[in-house]
Amino acid sequence: MIPVPADREFTVNYSLNGYVPQVVPVRPRSGPDATVDVAGGGGSDTYGAQPELAPNPVYAQLQPAAPPAPTRKGRSKPRGPKQPPPLQQ
């Protein structure tokens, strides 16, 4: 588990080689649709009320990155010894 600030918005960053990275904003949920989770199942000796975060769980589906642009390496024909000019008659 990673500790995060629950009193303000933060971001979760996903990245993987070969995929487009994504950033997901996460914020504390407040208002009438907010619920409070009591860690440990209740009681005075528990961790207390934990604010609900939205989205929860945080989810992102990474998209494959575009292939790199082809690079030009110069001439496609290998350079060899220079050919002599044709014989003139």
SS-derived structural category: mainly beta
Query: Average pLDDT across residues?
Result: 77
**What is the C-alpha radius of gyration, as a whole number of Å?**
30 Å
Query: How many helices?
Result: 0
Overall body shape: rod-shaped
What is the percentage of strand-forming residues? 15-25%
Order of helices and strands: EEEEE
Helix proportion:
under 10%
Number of strands: 5
Please summarize the sheet with the most strands: 3 strands, antiparallel
Residue runs with pLDDT of under 50 for 5 or more positions? 36-46
The largest beta-sheet arranges its strands as 1-2-5
Cα distance spanning the termini: 88 Å
Structural account:
It is built from no helices and 5 strands. By secondary structure, it is an all-beta fold. The protein has a domain at 10-54. Strands 1-2-5 form a 3-stranded antiparallel sheet, with no helix packed on it. A hairpin with an 8-residue loop joins strand 3 and strand 4.
Characteristic key phrases:
0% helix; two-stranded antiparallel ribbon; 89 residues; three-stranded antiparallel beta sheet; mainly beta; rod-shaped; single chain
Compact overview of the structure:
This protein is an all-beta fold and 89 residues long. The protein has a domain of 45 residues. It contains no helices and five strands.
Helix and strand topology:
Blueprint: E1 10-14, E2 22-28, E3 37-39, E4 48-50, E5 53-54
